[in-house]
Fold this protein.
Amino acid sequence: MKGFLAFPILLLLLFGTAVNAHFATGLEAYNSGDYATAIKEWKPLAEKGMADAQFNLAWMHYFGKGVKRSYTPAAKWFQLAADQGLADAQSNLGVMYREGLGVTQDYKNALKWFQLAAEQGNAYAQSNLGDMYQQGYGVIQDYRRAHMWLSISASQGIKKSLVDRNMLELKMIPADIAKANELARECVAKNYKGC
């Protein structure tokens, strides 16, 4: 019985090692500017469902690295990785929905993807949520919630969030700022869930 179980585990390890080798080869090629090799290594992995490879292909399409710049395939690959829970892909997909890049502009979908990424601690998604609440894009404008998300993002080192939050405070009364700070502390204590 032990030998029977060892064979599938061995296959899994060998397959995992080969997948990691292809991913690493693609990463090395990308970092050296050999985008054609990066695509050759990552595309089969992405097509088999590897979220990190899907994200990297999306990034290449978004910025036109080794392919013609095109937001539609970028959105497709970000969507596939986002559906698997990859926070960076969720955050970038949120940007694409907010701006209408490769997809129809849709603030509600942008908000959804920012929220999912923010709940995983993605500081850029948290910053974007702050912007959405400040502007009232896809939500009722809410300066306290905007301040909360901008503060959380700023605490993770996003300087733009700090600047945006400080500018937002000029529009707020002290009681609302205090409430926003309380909301931020509660949100951090809940690991960003349900904020």
Notes: Residues 2-31 form the longest helix (30 residues). The chain has a mean pLDDT of 90.
